[in-house]
Fold each of these.
Amino acid sequence: MEGTNPVNKKLAATLSGGAVLALTLSGCGSGDNGNEKLDAWAKQVCDAVQPQAKKIEAANAAIQKETSDNSKPADVKKTDAQAFQDMSQAYKAIGTAVQQAGAPNVDNGAKKQQDAVKELNGISASYASLKKQVDDLDTKDQAKFADGLKGIATALNKLSQSGNDALKTLEEGDVGKAMAKQPSCKSASAPATATAG
């Protein structure tokens, strides 16, 4: 088992750092200029994001748990595949929520919204691709399995470092302030900073 665990721990560490891109949707700051339309938009998005954020967090926790003990490759494979599938679905759902909410009532709102949707769908597709890679791992050959996990950890690292620019842009200024006021956004972001120990 020794061949797998360090790599798998690396996978968990990478994941805990990068899997919660959507949770930047918590925004920060206080008060805005009383933009009721924007507040309604923020509430709609935050309410939709909250259950997906919990799904991402649960997937994250499952991978953490699977790597904290001497898990069998088959169990690691099953857990990781399910986690990536859950994350893919969650990001897709967040993208749909931002799409359905329409453009926020701010300058360039439509462009910011579309860029964010495109990015969220891209993240969803990336996790779907990682799930497929995990599905294809050979658990019978320990060395091959460890190599495969290494490749997935590398891809995951790239994914966690790229990608959330459009989300940040969407949340700038008044949008972020409106979102910060929403209880569902606050609770979605609170536990998202787990680290692999």
Amino acid sequence: MRVLGVDPGLTRCGVGVVEGVAGRPLTIVGVGVVRTPVDAELGHRLVAIEQGIEAWLDEHRPEFVAVERVFSQHNVRTVMGTAQASAVAMLCAARRGIPVALHTPSEVKAAVTGTGRADKAQVGAMVTRLLRLDAPPKPADAADALALAICHIWRAPAHNRLQQAVALHAAKATKGRPA
């Protein structure tokens, strides 16, 4: 399974591609950051993020895209920018028919470090160890994108089984209803 992890942000949007399956060593395919100028108009920044993500999708051809789920923060301006960048990533994937999964920061931290309260340094250290890197990816947005991809690879089998069970239940429930 090849997953593009996206840590959304207007100024720095972390991107990282990881390949592998749960229970086996994972391989880093690529890592980076899509950057936009702080002083640019919002629309231009979103187009730059779109172009950057499209380039990553073209180059790495992921089977899944894992995006950090936006959660409520005290700074509404920050959460709006994060949500807008997140929507761009989801749109790029949906346009190509690539399934998108959303993972909360605490889910990602728990999957990668064993605790949902891990700090950025702990996440970076575990990403470094899990992908057998010489040093943590910089900036932290890049390491977070890799952590998202790792989280998705590890959680996908259980998530897929759950989706299949829900679909089967829904099919059984509608089977007995008149058309």
